[in-house]
Amino acid sequence: MRLGRLARRQDFHRLRRVGRRYQLGTMWVVVAPTETVSGDEQSAAVRVAFAIPRRAGTAVERNRFRRRVREALRVSAVAPGSYLIGPREGKLDASFAAIRADVTRLEHLGEFPREDP
């Protein structure tokens, strides 16, 4: 599955307004379902943004966390929507297995229906 990016200001305002917040083992996540226009595949995509402060770690560590989360989302069956993700305190260096386990938990939270692979 291809992941999209959240970049527009109104997307972030919508996340703040209607998004659900979750604390997982390695990360925190704000999730908002996507309003799809019938047959519009672009609006049904998983769109992701990251909020990782510089004080969390070096650029290499922050980018590694982003890559691991993106890959875990790509191979998972999370529901289409907008996701704002950040590492929990001290978890920037979490292993891919731990991040993948948290994404699996995110799939099963039950608020949004799972997408058929």
Automatic annotation (TrEMBL):
One CC-aspect GO term: ribonuclease P complex
Keywords: Endonuclease, Hydrolase, Nuclease, RNA-binding, tRNA processing
Role noted for this protein: RNaseP catalyzes the removal of the 5'-leader sequence from pre-tRNA to produce the mature 5'-terminus. It can also cleave other RNA substrates such as 4.5S RNA. The protein component plays an auxiliary but essential role in vivo by binding to the 5'-leader sequence and broadening the substrate specificity of the ribozyme.
Protein name, entry field: Ribonuclease P protein
Gene3D superfamilies: 3.30.230.10
Annotated TM spans: none
PANTHER family per record: RIBONUCLEASE P PROTEIN COMPONENT
Keyword presence, Transferase: no
Residues making up the signal peptide according to the UniProt record: none
Coiled coil residues, start to end: none
Gene Ontology MF, one: ribonuclease P activity
Stored InterPro entries: Ribosomal_Su5_D2-typ_SF, Ribsml_uS5_D2-typ_fold_subgr, RNase_P, RNase_P_CS
Organism domain of life: Bacteria
